[in-house]
Amino acid sequence: MTDLIATATGAALVFAATNLDDVVVLTVLFVAARGTGRPRPGHIVAGQYLGIGALVAAAAVAAAGLLVVPDPWTGLLGLLPVALGVRALLARSDDDGPPVVVGGLLGVAGVTIANGADNIAVYVPVFRSLAPADALVWLVVFAALVGLWCAVAAGLGGHPAVVRWVGRVGHWLVPAVFIVIGALILVTSGVLARLGDALG
């Protein structure tokens, strides 16, 4: 029983450390859903599960030695949230509420994958060291925490103070959040330095 608790705790800590920024993205999406109806709350939840599932699957395949993750080239996925944010910023009108940055399930999944591509570098060595039973515990913990993340973000996205605040500044804040997250992915992944070396 002690081993099970230790394994679950380790999984929870790794998930929280690598997905803390997802709460911000999810909250922004839930506020947008409340104001514009897009993306639908069900699409946000399903897209988050689909995105995290894809990241975990890629890490598991890489851990098994069947896939070589082209690190740091996965950092180029940071271009996706940057592009979504810039598009929403250019398309906005001053009388709008929060703009629609992501429109559906696949868009949410894409942003989740882009935002978590660097997580694979953390997950791969961990998954290599896990016994099958422990890996199952990790999957259950990850699935439960995706649900918790969505519940927390939905609660924040429905809080009157948050809704009012985003209603006032959402026309630039929502796209800015996506642009900043994309820029952070590009910078912290090391892909810009690699591109500089390749071009130089």
TrEMBL record:
Return the InterPro entries for the record.
Cd-R_transporter (IPR004676)
Arranged from A to Z, the UniProt key words for this protein are: Membrane, Transmembrane, Transmembrane helix
Does the keyword Transmembrane feature in the UniProt annotation? yes
Q: Is the keyword Magnesium assigned to this protein?
A: no
From the record, give the transmembrane residue ranges. Answer: 12-32, 44-67, 73-90, 102-124, 136-157, 169-193
Q: What is this protein called?
A: Cadmium resistance protein CadD, predicted permease
Q: What is the lineage of its organism?
A: Bacteria, Bacillati, Actinomycetota, Actinomycetes, Micromonosporales
